[in-house]
Amino acid sequence: MIFDQGLGDLFVVRVAGNVVGGIELDSVIYSALVLQSSVILVLGHENCGAVKAVIDGDGKKVPYVAKLIEPAVKTEKKKNPPFILEACVKRNAINMKNLLLENSILKGLVKDNKLSIHAGYYNLESGVVDLIEESSFLDKLNR
User: Fold this and answer.
1) Which one of 36, 82, 111, 114 counts the least CB within 10 Å of its CB?
2) What does the pLDDT look like over 73-83, one tens digit per residue?
3) pLDDT digit string (tens) for 85-97?
4) From 3.90.226.10, 3.40.1050.10, 1.10.3720.10, 3.40.50.300, which CATH number describes the 16-141 domain?
């Protein structure tokens, strides 16, 4: 349903690695304040090339994006799970969600129940989007 929307039904900020820098943050704030968006979804996806570049040490090709992805890769590489790319994409989506929640404007809208912010993972093959919450994500990795 979410991908079958008309023009103006969604406010989309697309960027490599689903990172949140200054321009993306301002865009999200604009969407929440001016357009009164009620849900923000930070959506990582299967086989993300930007995250893979950082894992493979090719972050020099996208230095600003890589800098924002590196904390997720460092965290997940320490654990060395069998699905490192998927784990890093999910960790990055959670990190970016948490970064949005640190913003005082967005935090206030969440507190007032005018906005919710989520992280998700898009499976390109199946088309399924799974919402990921930090606690359930960590539980799965530690099994």
Assistant:
1) 82
2) 999 987 866 67
3) 999 999 999 999 9
4) 3.40.1050.10
